């Protein structure tokens, strides 16, 4: 395999401007200490949407509403979710796994991690599975729609050794996003697995962004490359193919595409850093839509909105919203927790709003789309 090297970058180029803008994001993530449960809940929703996007890039057309309904059915019955939904849930599980490793300082870029991510992504799937989850391929493969032929199976281990050596190389800050973009392309170019390479490449890119400080467990909206690649599926494939010759020009164009996409995505959703914006412009209209659809009661809607504005609330904080005795308040709050509209925090009886996998989810997604905060691939 041709050695992995950084292309020459013109200091006056738009790519350098975008790199500086994203470096400011990294500084913000490293210095923020967000204690906003609503923002954290929105982050959890975005991570779920990222998994939907990654599956959609591969042709899975399952809607967000389908995921919510099927995941809740599977949880209630103890039966496996449908195959297309399971593909999405497994990608979400893989992202959660990386977040957990990162939280404990153990997110290391190794063959073991890559194989674990592959196993988590494809295990047990019918349409998009792999007969050998977690194992590099031992057969030749092709990539539909492109002229590039991935290396022979006998080269995969050595090629992946080289890729991981480059991915783990300490480089100056101005090279780190270029390093991430180059690793993504070269991974797909190697195609180390029989199936699931696109999904694993996007998980690996997220892992690298996390290790380099471009994501944050406390940010309402972490930078995530899948939002970039999902903005225009064909453009993603075209830019990947354009770099397949490994020419400096093609590689540089690919890197510019990735970095500019991250910058655009950051600009779209920067407003989500403000708790009041989330409660007033995202949650409020979503609750009203659920109320109009008959999916929540007026009292439930009032409770959700009140808790959203406060961030977290005790039962006593809601006496003006839930009329009647303390027992009546406790009963309603317990019912809302059981239905998934609220979450009860550990400690002295505080409640927070839930936006993930309940009747609000599809309305929140619709509202985020109205605010131009979602890639086109999520539009049903």
Automatic annotation (TrEMBL):
UniProt KW keywords = ATP-binding, Nucleotide-binding
GO MF terms held by the record: ATP binding
Q: Where is the Fido domain?
A: 109-260
Indicate which residues the UniProt annotation says bind ATP. 236-237
Active-site residues annotated for this sequence:
191
Origin superkingdom: Bacteria
Any single Pfam family the record assigns to this protein: Fic
Protein's name according to its UniProt entry: Fido domain-containing protein
Organism in which the protein naturally occurs: Kocuria varians (Micrococcus varians)
Q: What is the lineage of its organism?
A: Bacteria, Bacillati, Actinomycetota, Actinomycetes, Micrococcales
């Amino acid at each position: 395999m041709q050695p992995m090297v950084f292309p020459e970058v013109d200091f006056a180029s738009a790519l350098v401007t975008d790199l500086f803008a994203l470096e400011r994001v990294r500084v913000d993530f490293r210095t923020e200490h967000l204690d906003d449960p609503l923002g954290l809940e929105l982050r959890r929703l975005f991570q779920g949407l990222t998994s939907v996007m990654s599956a959609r890039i591969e042709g899975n057309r399952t809607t967000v509403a389908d995921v919510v309904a099927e995941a809740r059915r599977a949880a209630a019955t103890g039966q496996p979710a449908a195959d297309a939904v399971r593909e999405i849930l497994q990608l979400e599980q893989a992202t959660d796994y990386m977040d957990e490793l990162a939280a404990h300082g153990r997110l290391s870029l190794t063959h073991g991690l890559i194989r674990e991510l592959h196993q988590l992504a494809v295990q047990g799937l019918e349409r998009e599975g792999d007969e050998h989850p977690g194992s590099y391929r031992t057969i030749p493969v092709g990539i539909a729609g492109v002229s590039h032929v991935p290396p022979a199976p006998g080269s995969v281990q050595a090629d992946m050794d080289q890729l991981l050596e480059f991915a783990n190389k300490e480089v100056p800050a101005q090279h780190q996003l270029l390093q991430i973009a180059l690793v993504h392309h070269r991974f797909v170019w190697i195609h180390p697995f029989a199936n699931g390479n696109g999904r694993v490449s996007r998980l690996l890119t997220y892992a690298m962004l996390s290790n380099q400080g471009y994501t944050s467990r406390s940010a309402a909206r972490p930078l995530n490359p899948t939002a970039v690649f999902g903005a225009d599926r064909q453009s993603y494939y075209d830019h990947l193919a354009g770099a397949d010759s490994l020419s400096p020009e093609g590689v540089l164009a690919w890197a510019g595409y990735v970095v500019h996409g991250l910058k655009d995505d950051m600009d779209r959703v920067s407003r989500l850093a403000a708790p009041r914006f989330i409660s007033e412009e995202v949650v409020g209209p979503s609750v009203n839509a659920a109320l109009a659809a008959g999916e929540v009661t007026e009292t439930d809607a009032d409770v959700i909105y009140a808790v959203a504005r406060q961030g977290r609330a005790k039962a006593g904080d809601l006496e003006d919203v839930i009329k009647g005795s303390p027992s009546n308040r406790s009963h309603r709050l317990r019912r809302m927790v059981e239905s998934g509209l609220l979450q009860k925090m550990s400690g002295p009886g505080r409640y927070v709003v839930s936006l993930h996998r309940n009747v609000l989810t599809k309305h929140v997604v619709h509202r985020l789309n109205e605010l131009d905060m979602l890639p086109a691939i999520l539009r049903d």
